[in-house]
Design a protein that fits this description.
binds D-xylulose, TIM Barrel, 2 domains, binds cobalt (II) ion, 17 helices, 8-stranded parallel β-barrel, alpha/beta
């Protein structure tokens, strides 16, 4: 069956910008060298299991629109789903995939049985990965769908729920380790609250800190070398999520002494929901030394929820990739398509088209970002703008050599009357457009 689910059996190939074939790459050329690195190694694309293979196409007013032969709660269906998923990884030629424990195997009555189901499918993945070229970018545990987690997992008022979540994460982390995962992600699906009337905020924050520490301790115990990543999101499902944005998570990590042990998985749509730009979140994480990985998608600028659309917007991604390149590129991280086709996109090939379109848009954006790096005009402008801080005077201020008194005295003595200089935003935006080929 899986061979017949999609309309093609041969992997999608790079054909160049001249091609008008839909199932072909125009810009994503894995072997093309960009700034001394293969394009595939820069972008490290991953297909996610949940949106592509488990989401039924529902919205708040209607249920399933996507009919898939592997939908259902049996292990047989889970194996069929794995066959189709690996077929899609092969067709797209993506180097990575990602999953939640609940995406790959059905939940059972007890934790032990559910964990066994996950292990069984993970073993199947392991066998498939022996002959496939796809690797695991990250695994994670779904601590938000089951009703036991309605009041949170680590931040639940009931310690038994905390314990259940711990047991689930232990298994998902071990499975990720066994499959050679490059990272492990924690997205605090319901780690937040709706109303203070029923919530002890301080207690819940401490619970979350303890949970994170336990994950790091277990990672070290089992010898997992990948990176532990936290994914910020400001709201949805809860009104106030504790892991609101990069800055909030950094503060939390510092409070629990984990700022050197955990990094961040930034999602475009979550950045937008937090009132930030995507590139702001990347730049802040890089500045704080906690940039890890990306969930690449596109939020809708009018809707206040997580629309998780496939990213096709080249200019915005060029600015994001510029920040990633400035930060030195990915180490263990990559670009995970945390994106879903629209519920009316019901043709099997729509899954391929969505990924191809986005991979091409991102590849084109990478070329623009690489051009920004190579020409260096944006960088020179910023360096020149701050050049005063490289003078003896600037260094003395930041080096602790001055006080309010000494600075006040120097302003008077040298009769300093600093003059404003143009920030030249339109000029810089024009340069960005030029890097985009305008
Ligand atoms: C939810 C979200 C998750 C995480 C993994 O908005 O982004 O899919 O990426 O749990
Ligand atoms: Co995500």
């Amino acid at each position: 069956m899986p061979e017949e689910f999609f309309s093609i059996a041969e992997p999608v190939r790079y054909e160049g910008p001249e091609t008008d074939r839909t199932l072909a790459f125009r810009w994503y050329d894995p072997d093309r060298m960009v700034l001394g690195r293969r394009m595939e190694e820069h972008l490290r694309f991953a297909v996610c299991y949940w949106h592509s293979f488990t989401w039924p196409g529902g919205d708040p007013f209607g249920g399933q629109t996507l009919l898939r032969p592997w939908f259902g709660d049996t292990m047989e269906k889970a194996r069929l789903k794995a066959d189709v998923a690996f077929e899609m990884f092969r067709l797209l030629g993506v180097p990575f995939f990602t999953f939640h424990d609940r995406d790959i195997a059905p939940e059972a009555e007890s934790l032990a049985e559910s964990n066994r189901n996950v292990r069984e499918i993970a073993d199947l993945f392991g066998k498939k990965m022996e002959s496939a070229s796809v690797r695991l970018l990250w695994g994670t545990a779904n601590l938000f769908s089951n009703r036991r987690y309605m009041a949170g997992a680590a931040t639940n008022p009931d310690p038994e729920v905390f314990a259940y979540a711990a047991g689930q994460v232990k298994n998902a982390l071990e499975v990720t380790h066994e499959l050679g995962g490059a990272n492990y992600v924690l997205w605090g699906g319901r780690e937040g609250y709706e109303t203070l009337l029923n919530t002890d905020l301080k207690r819940e924050l401490n619970q979350l800190g303890r949970f994170l520490s336990m994950v790091v301790e277990h990672k070290e115990k089992i010898g997992f070398k990948g990176t532990i990543l936290i994914e910020p999101k400001p709201q949805e499902p809860t009104k106030h999520q504790y892991d609101f944005d990069v800055g909030t998570i950094y503060g939390m990590l510092q409070a629990f002494g984990l700022e050197d042990r955990v990094k961040i998985n930034i999602e475009q749509n979550h950045a937008i929901l937090a009132g930030h730009s995507f590139e702001h979140e990347i730049a802040l994480a890089a500045a704080l030394g906690i940039f890890g990985s990306i969930d690449i998608n596109r939020g809708d600028y009018q809707s206040g929820w997580d629309t998780d659309q496939f990213a096709m917007n080249v200019p915005e991604m060029a600015l994001a990739l510029y920040e990633i390149l400035k930060a030195g590129g990915f180490t263990t991280g990559g670009l995970n398509f945390d994106a879903k086709i629209r519920r009316q996109s019901i043709d099997p090939d729509d899954l391929l088209i969505a990924h191809i379109g986005s991979m091409d848009a991102i590849a084109r954006a990478l070329l623009a970002a690489a051009d920004m790096m190579e020409k260096g005009d944006l960088k020179s402008f910023v360096e020149e703008r701050y050049s005063g801080w490289e003078s003896d005077f600037g260094r003395s201020i930041l080096g602790g050599g001055e006080s309010l008194e000494s600075l006040a005295a120097q302003v008077a003595e040298k009769d300093l009357r600093p003059q404003p200089k143009s920030g030249k935003q339109e000029f810089l935006e024009m340069l960005v457009d030029r890097h985009l080929g305008v």
